[in-house]
Amino acid sequence: MDAIELLLTRQSDSNLSFPGPSAEQLEVIKKAALKVPDHGGLKPWRFILVEEQGREKLGEIFYQAAVEEQQEQRIIDRAKALPERAPMLIIAVSPYVEHPKVPRIEQIESAACSVFAMQQAAFAQGLSGVWRTGYFAQSASVKRQLGLSEQDEIVGYLYLGTPTVQCTKPVRHQPEDFFTQL
User: Three-state SS string across 9-39, please?
Assistant: First the structure.
C-alpha cells in the first residue's frame, strides 16, 4: 500500500479480534511512533503496552478509578470490560518537559501524532485499530495507578487487532467544506 492510498483509505475500526500485532508488526508500529514532529527533540511521548493479562489489570484500574471518582453507574459497570475490546492496547502518554521554546500543547500534539502514526502503521500491515480517549484518559486515579505524574497527559488508548468485519467505505468529506483561502 503506498502512502497516499494509506492516508486516503484509513479509518478507525472498533470491531477488533485476535490476533493482535505480531512481534514484527509491533516493531514497525513502535518505530512509526518515533518518527513524528518533535520540536526541540524533547521526545515528549511514552507508551505503555497492554496485552494478555495486562488487559485485565487495566480493566481493574478503570474499575477502581470509576468507583473512587464516583462516576455514573453505567461507566462503573462497563469499566472492567473496556480493555477486552482488542487484543492489544497502547496507552500514549505525554510527559510534560519544561522548555522555554516548546509549550505544553506542542508536546501533546507530538504525542498525538505518534498515536496517528502507530494507527497508520497498523493499518498498512493489515491490522486495524481505534484511538479512544474519554473519562479514563482524564482520570487522576488512572494516572496515579499507572504510575504517571499529575502533569502527564494520557493522549489516548490505541486499541489494535484484526478487523472482524469488512468496513464500509469511509465518508468522503469534501475539502472545500474545511479549507478556506486567506
Answer: HCCCCCCEECCCCCHHHHHHHHHHHCCCCCH
Q: Which three cell numbers stand for residue 161?
A: 487487532
Q: Whole-angstrom Cα distance, residue 127 to residue 113?
A: 19
Full residue range of the structural domain in which residue 159 is found: 13-50+86-164
> Tens digit of pLDDT for each residue in 128-176?
999 999 999 999 999 999 999 999 999 999 999 999 887 666 667 899 9
Q: Is the pTM of this model over 0.90?
A: yes
Residue 141 lies in a domain: yes
CA angle 72/78/82 to nearest 5° reads 130
Residue 153, domain member (yes or no)? yes
Query: Per the structure, how many domains does the chain have?
Result: 1
Question: End-to-end distance of the chain based on CA atoms, in angstroms?
Answer: 35
Number of Cβ atoms within 10 Å of the Cβ of 40: 14
Residue 88 parent element (H or E): strand 88-94
Beta-bridge partner residues of 51:
88
Domain membership flag for residue 135: yes
Q: Which helix (H) or strand (E) holds 163?
A: strand 153-163
CATH of the domain at 43: 3.40.109.10
**Separation CA 166–CA 69 (nearest Å):** 38
